[in-house]
Amino acid sequence: MSHTAWTRAHLPSLAGRQAIVTGANSGLGLETAVGLAAAGAHLVLACRSPERSSAALAELRRRVPGASAELMRLDLSDLASVRAFADQYGGRRLDILVNNAGVMALPYATTKDGFELQIGTNHLGHFALTGLLLPRLLATPGARVVTVASIAHRAASGFALDDLHWQQRPYNKAQAYACSKLANLLFSLELDRRLRAAGHGLIAVAAHPGYAATNIGLNTADGERNALEKLAIRIGNALFAQSAAGGALPSLRAAGDPAVRGGEYYGPRGLFQFVGAPVKVGHHPRAGDPELARRLWQQSEQVTGLRYL
């Protein structure tokens, strides 16, 4: 592609394609869904809260008149909900799966299955979802799995496979988030390796939004974010962040650009990958460690009870 900045207008027609976006009720997920719907795809908005997601569906239809879209309930912090979602989706074709939903820097809590909430939601829920939907993806020529990571993966100094759920160490919510985002990248790159080894054409690719003004930092499981933290987040969003629409561009490029290849990683091209048009970017060397990725995959299979590839 030329040096022209990639925008949503570069997306080819996605008419006839089926896409699932997790966490599509707000922020990056909603903007990703809007972009894919505008290109003609049929969208499944996979969200935890029916109330909040119905408002998102109305917003999508307002912004993309005539959009083809539907809501389906999905709680990534509950493996029974993930299985129910995959069962409900059934045997339909699936061209694009965007593993976007996430929680960030929460006080210690566990999922329904006993996982630490951030690794459980951000990584293990998506690991299970991808595996359960894999037969549909493999049956659809040219399909893609886009996993949304974060520049925060570079800060993951506490990534301990023998204590993934922080039962043996003092809990650090920022480190737990960074580790969950490192897990997203390890997963995406290992998925690509396994697909290639098996001779499948399915594309596994990762993206990150840079520093985007969304409400992920403001939302906590129990509303425990204090007024000072909220103020700091809002000031940071106002001064340094790009819009949620800008933050969604790397995911949209990963999902729709014909030039994208498996194993790539897309993010903003600006300083520190904070803002800017989406380009292919580098990641921390740890994210590319195949042995670490293999062990994480193995452990993810064990705790979710789901084996694939």
Automatic annotation (TrEMBL):
SUPFAM superfamilies: NAD(P)-binding Rossmann-fold domains (SSF51735)
Residues in the signal sequence: none
Protein name: SDR family NAD(P)-dependent oxidoreductase
Record family assignment: Belongs to the short-chain dehydrogenases/reductases (SDR) family.
Keyword tags: Oxidoreductase
Molecular function as annotated in GO: oxidoreductase activity
Gene3D superfamilies registered for this protein in UniProt: NAD(P)-binding Rossmann-like Domain
